[in-house]
Design brief:
The complex is a heterodimer of chains A (about 280) and B (about 260).
Chain A: E1 7-10, H1 14-38, E2 43-44, E3 57-63, E4 69-75, E5 78-81, E6 87-89, E7 96-98, H2 112-139, H3 142-147, H4 151-154, H5 156-167, H6 182-204, H7 208-213, H8 215-220, H9 224-251, H10 254-262, E8 265-268
Antiparallel strand pairs in A: 1-8, 2-3, 3-4, 4-5, 6-7
Helix pairs in contact in A: 1-2, 6-9
Chain B: H1 2-31, H2 33-40, H3 42-53, H4 83-90, E1 98-102, E2 108-110, H5 112-117, E3 120-128, E4 134-143, H6 144-151, E5 159-167, E6 177-183, H7 184-187, E7 193-198, E8 201-202, E9 212-214, E10 227-233
Parallel strand pairs in B: 1-10
Antiparallel strand pairs in B: 1-2, 3-4, 4-7, 5-6, 5-10, 7-8, 7-9
The chains are: A alpha+beta (about 280), B alpha+beta (about 260).
Amino acid sequence: MAQPKTVLVYRHAAVTRLTHWINVLALTLLLMSGLNIFGAHPALYWGQKSTFAHPWISIGAVEKPNGEMMGVTQIGQAKFNTTGVLGYSGEVGSREPVAFPSWATVPSFRDLADSRHWHFFFAWLFVLNGLVYWLVGLGGGHIAKDLVPTKGDVAPRNVWHEIVTHARLRFPKGEAARRYNVLQKATYLGVVLILLPLMVLTGLSMSPGFNAAAPWLVDLFGGRQSARSIHFIAAWTIVAFVLLHLFMVVASGTWNNIRSMITGRYAIVPDAPTPAPGETA
Amino acid sequence: MIGSVHRRGWLQAGLASAGALVLGACDKITNNPQAIGFLQSAEGLTRRAQRLVTDRKALAREFTAADISPDFRPNGSVDPTDPEYVALKEKGFADYRLVVDGLVERPLSLSLADLRALPSRTQITRHDCVEGWSSIGKWTGARLGPLLDQAKLKPGARYIVFHCGDTLEQTLDGSGQYYESIDLIDAYHPQTILAYAMNDRPLPVPHGAPLRLRVERQLGYKHAKYVMRVEAVNDLGHLGRGKGGFWEDRGYEWYAGI
């Protein structure tokens, strides 16, 4: 029996591919400059104002009785020794008090002014890129056609089936691989319609200028310090999504996936074809 | 298996060195004035976009007495040691005079009593530090707009500069003296005041006694403390290092609306 031939299907439109990679660049630099900015006041609160004595999370350095420094991350009432990563990090011997380690921040040294320049530049790129994706995605039908789940998709039986096969890392082949499954659709929709816009809106809610223009927005998030907290949580939610996304890319065929996001072509093995007349199977 | 362990080692080393390269490149960009200047060009976009969507007179949110922070944090200078300032402070600011000059028809010299007699405004607002924290306080002060009208701006005046009594950084050329500047849109905003009272008491020294600027809708470092002189100018280039403020001279945005 002949090996079934793989066929390359056109999976990702040029706009999808371009906006995807611009997002990779922008989100990476936004995260890293954001972690540097966070270091200027490494504590988060709820509400409009800071309750300095009671942050819900804080990262800092304390001196131990023996004079040694220790990185401490506090979440609620719990305190953790995070020396080397959070609060106090760097090469052993020349460690310094800094919220996130230098390898995770842009620039690598503590610098609020410059990290803000990086952050706002790539925030604009991220926003404009997102607008292009949305306009083309809504106008061209990509979001409606490829991302909004169909009735069949959301049938409980199908959802359960997808969860089980995903948990076993068995991915659709053949015809079914031509389109996203319901878990992919829900995740991608959640990211492009909720998570990424949430980043922009909570970011804008920290702007005193924008607060005056649209006071309802910062109220929606429960105040400026709440907006800062949600901005931080949503950023880490994006990191979690990217880690899962990368894991799935590797698990379902690294090079095939990467190629499809570069050239648009995705290889699938078609379902066993019905033999054409005269062909020996 | 051994091969795959080796491969993993190579992959990790490769990723680590690629990461270091990218980080190194980012630091190089940060330290290159032209490159960081390019990134900083987003500031103009932000200012124009915010001015486009914001009414010139749109007010910053005002809060209630119950919202006032019990732990309002002072930042920057908290107790200036400049001899002139110390001398004023020792006499309870009785000799203090606010000078209003520059591109004005009628230069002024105002005592605290004169300032208290000017059209005033009281507002409970949120102070947002560039570092990320916020505190809420109640401010009472002379509205800057009417004060400027009294001095009568000359046609060339485009910016209002606030010269402060504190030296925040010791430098040889005197560029460590705190100063700030705003444009006329913010200068004439109804909530822009020169505050002499905080939370119904005379302005305390850590918060800028005897007089500080409140320019709501911008970040904390724009709210100059220890204001000694208000100068109307046409251009900011000749002041400090030419960027319009102490922190602006050290890389921060002149438009601090975000």
